[in-house]
Amino acid sequence: MVTSVTSRTVLGSLIGLLMWAQLPVAALGWTACVVQSGSMRPALMPGDVVLYQPPPRDRTPAVGQIVLAQDPTRPGHLLTHRVHQVLPNNGLITKGDANSTPDSTPIRPTALEGVARLRVPSIGLPVQLWRAKQPVPAVILLLGLAALLVLAALPLHSRNRHN
Which of 6, 63, 74, 5 is nearest to 36 (CA)? Predict the structure, then answer.
């Protein structure tokens, strides 16, 4: 009974976190991304899901805000870093919290994809592990989830009824 209740509680919490991570995407047009590296530690950890509000077109994000942008040094990739400096042309110099120096290439205003508004911790860990080419831990997490599903399906109690 305790195992089943615990499994249901954990699964309910995970489902709630997943819904919380997807509701702003579906309802408000926000963007959800899984953090892939440790460059923003301790504020953001690999496996966290961050929700980004579309950037306001009439103003530049402020110093200290976390932004999502097209990575100027790796075409086709996204970058999540904190605004370190706003340039006169509204370009941005960003910096990862765990990095010792700011990023060398400014981000153009048109490359800005969003401003961070919500962090859902660890919910994207299987995705992060898979993308980091660590499929064994990802599969172990997924097998653990499958075990939780099986345990949650157990009846809460069993009674022998006699007529």
Answer: 74
Each residue's pLDDT tens digit, 41-89: 999 999 999 999 999 888 899 999 999 999 999 999 999 999 999 999 8
Query: What single DSSP character describes residue 103?
Result: -
Nearest CA to 128 out of 38, 16, 12, 11 is that of 38
B/e letters for 13-41, b = 16+ CB within 10 Å, e = fewer, are eeeebeeebeebeeeeebbbbbbbeebbe
Q: Which CATH architecture does the domain made up of 2-152 adopt?
A: Ribbon (2.10)
Domain boundaries, the chain: 2-152
Let me know: does 101 contact 84? Beta carbons within 8 Å. no
pTM of the predicted protein model? 0.76
**Nearest-10 Cα torsion for 102, 103, 104, 105:** -140
